[in-house]
Amino acid sequence: MTRHEQLIEALQHNFGFDSFKGNQEAIINNLMDGKDTFVLMPTGGGKSLCYQLPSLLMDGVAIVISPLIALMKNQVDAMRNFSEEDGVAHFINSSLSRPEIHAVKADILSGKTKLLYVAPESLNKDENVDFLKEVKISFYAVDEAHCISEWGHDFRPEYRRIHPIVERIGKAPIIALTATATPKVQNDIQKNLDMMNATVFKSSFNRSNLYYEVRQKTDEVDKDLVRYIRTMDGKSGIVYCLSRKTVEDLAETLRVNNIQALPYHAGMDAQTRSENQDAFLMEKVQVIVATIAFGMGIDKPDVRFVVHYDIPKSLEGYYQETGRAGRDGGEGQCISFYSTKDIERLRKFQQGKPVSEQEISNQLLFETQSYAEASICRRKLLLHYFGEEYKQDNCGNCDNCRKKYKMVDATELLGIILETIQQLNEKFRIEHIVDIIKGKESAAVLSYKHNELENFGSGEDQEEANLYAIIRQAMIAGYLRKDIESYGDLKLTPSGKKFAKRPVRFEVPIEIHGEDEDGDMASGAVTCAAADDVLFSILKDLRKKLSKRMNVPPFVIFQDGSLEAMATSYPITLEELQNIPGVGAGKAKRYGDEFIKLIKGYVEENDIIRPEDLRVRTVAKNSARKIAIIQAIDRRVALDDLAERLGMSMEEMLEEIEAIIYSGTKLNIKYFINEVVDPDEEADIYDYFRNAENDNIRTALKELGEDDYTEINVRLVRIKFHSDLGN
Fold this sequence. Notes:
The chain is 49% helix and 11% strand. It is globular, with a radius of gyration of 29 Å. Among the domains are: 3-202, P-loop containing nucleotide triphosphate hydrolases (Rossmann fold), CATH 3.40.50; 210-401, P-loop containing nucleotide triphosphate hydrolases (Rossmann fold); 405-511, Arc Repressor Mutant, subunit A, CATH 1.10.10.10. A hairpin with a 5-residue loop joins strand 15 and strand 16 (489-492). The strands form four sheets. The chain has a seven-stranded parallel beta sheet with strand order 3-4-2-5-6-1-7, sandwiched between helices. Strands 8-13-12-9-11-10 form a six-stranded parallel beta sheet, sandwiched between helices. It is of the alpha/beta class.
């Protein structure tokens, strides 16, 4: 058996998947070959599988260094759910009693345990170091590796001590993993862990299903938030605040407005914190209001919205926290409230700290402010910050890309900006450059006598925000860069120097104020969908009932994607169930009986012809698809949604429906026509076909008027006409 076949078999058996995502297989192969491995992968990309699967296949026990007790417990519970052996994964931390630690060590020595989660502090204890010296270590995994860097959003000094501890225990390959790391942070991590020669696997940071929006924070922010959450009725969400007091007050405000919400912050006692987190995971409450203390300890895939009530201190933190939305690939709305007062307050908090720490914090804060005030695509800005180029100008799934803009020529202004930066020997930051161009006599400008420069005040008629926007756009275009080592001094790139000598046209977008084209805040967001909505809903109810009985979160039993697959293929045996994505043999055995019984009863009660039945009878695939379409139309599934689920274009979907109609089967798509076709337009098209010599679409469009009628609408009404009169 080849390595690939071995990995696929292990993946299917242990985790219920039949293929890897992205770089997962290459990462696992690199680690199993004994090489140091650095993994940059966004939240929801499947980082944990990159060390969980090889730990099961390699000799010895893998040491996973993790920052939070809650995160360890969550990961260990997940591994035990996938396995029939509870001893397969353990953690050692301050929450365990002495007898419990002895039991863990006994499992490790017996060979049962393949994964051991530890905090850096626990790893540093002499008794644990001495114990682990006697154990065969397969590899070390450093999770949330950005905690190593002072430039990371969650710096932890104890992470700096990981490398010397590893040296004491005994060398083995290292895999470092993080969901957020700028090039500077990545370099810090590799240096500190002495893995500069590691193979680096960098996945795209783009989470296309996430919708990004920044809203102005006003005195009415609480009302705005309540209104928003009400539009997300029945969907789980997290609201992040910067202070504990705000968390408590806001949770109470939501509760008095009949929104089920609980607070979570580090100042609460451990039991209450744990109970509130579990209530959220078990879907007893809709919303958790939290400080950044909440999040790394959860693995809830169906969080549908993340709101930042206060703007975060860094873009890394923002990206990490928004990344907790839509981890299953479904809908994820990321809404942030922003005001300059919040930024000013955060800057004041830095006073009194060491100068270098203030410099780093202020630079990170400035990046967040730039993001919040930007008028260009938010996805493009975020990815640029993490060193990734997003080539599209419009992502279609952020507030800026849904606004109307006009492009304004900024060639002359950019030339002045570049010239000014060069005159200052590239030794000043963006705020200073803007002050000079605006003609602002700030203390710094006067002290350096930069008010005497020729370009001083050359852009005094410009809005300050526009100058910042031009500089940000110039960085994305590759004309300027920030020097991290000097805390953000602006430098010209080779392209910038070329532009300064011979300018080319440079445009920036300026918003045209008014309503969005369709007024719908997040229609671009991806939503989850099952082929049989009724069965999907019943399966969710069963999952919730089981989760209460077993006291585990619903998604631990089966994720939404698995339920959707069940509601599409109708598995009625354990063998069929374990082939559902995300199930596998372990989960099928542990939870499967009640789901099989429910699905079997549903299939019999509704006379459903299952795709599996069709396959057994060797019916062609297109026949199975036709039956799926007929059943979906009977359940009044929107045709555009159905097309997306079946991986078809709308045109292909209409061709399939037309073939069904022409074969003599009656279909009622009136419910969908009512949604998308004007009644008068429908009547006109219907009357045309009643009197036409043939049903040719091109002829119909020509007679009806191509400017007034769309081809899709004409085809929809033609389908209804044939079904009404011909079948």
